[in-house]
Here is the input.
Amino acid sequence: MVSLKQLVKNPLKVFGNGAKSTKGFQPEVFDRHVMTTYGRFPLTLTRGAGSRVWDGQGNEYLGFVEGIATCTLGHAHPVMVEAVTQQIQTLHHVSNLYYIPEQGALAQWLTEHSCTDRVFFCNSGAEANEAAIKLARKYGHTELGIDEPVIITANASFHGRTLATITATGQPKYQKNFAPLVPGFHYVPYNEIDALEAAIASLNANGPRVAAILLEALQGEGGVNPGNVAYFQRVRELCDQHNILLILDEVQVGVGRTGKLWGYENLGIEPDVITAAKGLGGGVPIGAMLCKSSCDVFQPGDHASTYGGNPFVCGVALAVCQTLDSENLMANASARGQQLRQGLLKLVDTYPHILEQVRGWGLINGLVLKADAPLKSLDIVKSATAQGLLLVPAGPNVVRFVPPLIVNASDINIALDKLATAIKQIA
Here is the structure.
C-alpha cells in the first residue's frame, strides 16, 4: 500500500505519468498529439507542495494562479492526500442509480452552510451553469407559463465553454465562429441598474418572458470586477417583484475565496440558485448547482451526469470544505487578501503611468493597468514568471492574483517583491 509520505514526496514515482519519467518530456511531441485549444506558457510543471510548484528542471515558482482559483488547499495538502487515498481504496465510482453516502454528506454540508436547500452534482463550472440554465428554463415554462424563457446576463461575464454557457457569456470573443448560438439570452451592462430595469420592462412588455437573471458576484475572467452592493440588492428586489430567479455564478469566487464562504455574502442578498466548481474540490473535478426548494422543479430524467457526485470527488470535496473551518482559511483569505491589496496599491503609487487601481475581495484580486499603458497584462505575467511568480491575466489590462487559501504572510511579501522586480524590469 502507498504511504502518505511516499505520495507527498514523489507522486510521479508512486503513480507514474504515462511514461517512465518527465525528464525526457518533449513539448513538440505534446503539441503533435494534443489539440491546440490552449495558448500555453513554455513551462512544464511536475511537482507541487503548498503554495509552490516546480518545473522539470527543478526551478521553484510561487503559485498565485493555482489552477485558476482551483487549488484551495494548495498542493499535496495532507488532508487532500489522506482523503484521496482513503476514498480510492474504498469506492471511487458508482452510478447515480444508487444512493451515494459521500454525495449526501457533501450536499448536507453545502446546504447547511448556504441559503440553499438542494444540490445537483456535476463535473465542472460550465456543467453547473448548464444545469442552472435548464432549471431556469423549466421554471419559466412550468411556474411562469413562458413559452420561450429569456435569461438576462451581463456584458463582460464568463459562464463556461459549452454552447449554452458561451452564449450566456457576454463576451463576443468567446462566441466567434460558433454560431448559431443558443437562443434565449439577453445582455446588460454589469452593475448598471437602470439598464437592467429597462431590459426587464422591455422584455416583459407583452407578458412575462424573463425567467432568470444570471450574474457573477464578482466578474473574474471579465477583469476582477466586484459586484456593487446597492446594485445587487435592487436586483434581488426586481427578481422578487417579477418572480424571476436570481442565479449567482460562484464558480470562481465561491468556497471561501472572497474571505467569506460565498460571494453573495459580500452583497447582503440571497440568490435562488448558486453554481460552484473550481475550489470546491481543491483540484479534483467537481461542479455543483445549489438551489432553494422553492425553485427545484427538476424531476427524475430532467437532468443527469454519469460522473457527477461520485464517491471519490464528493469524499475529497467534503474534506476540502471541512478544512476551510478547521484551519480557519476564510479568515486567512480575508487577512492575506488585505495584505496583498495594500502591497499592490504601493505599486500603483510607484508606477502611476502604467498602473491604475487594485480591486477584488479576499484572495481574488486584480491589478488594473491604464488603458493607454505601454504594457499589457500578459507582459507583466511573463516577466513575473521569469522571477518565479506565476500569475494569470484577466483580460488585456488586468493581472489576476488567485493564490491558494493556505497562503501565508511571508509568501504574500515574497510575491510582492517578485512582482515589483518584474515590473521594474519592463517598465
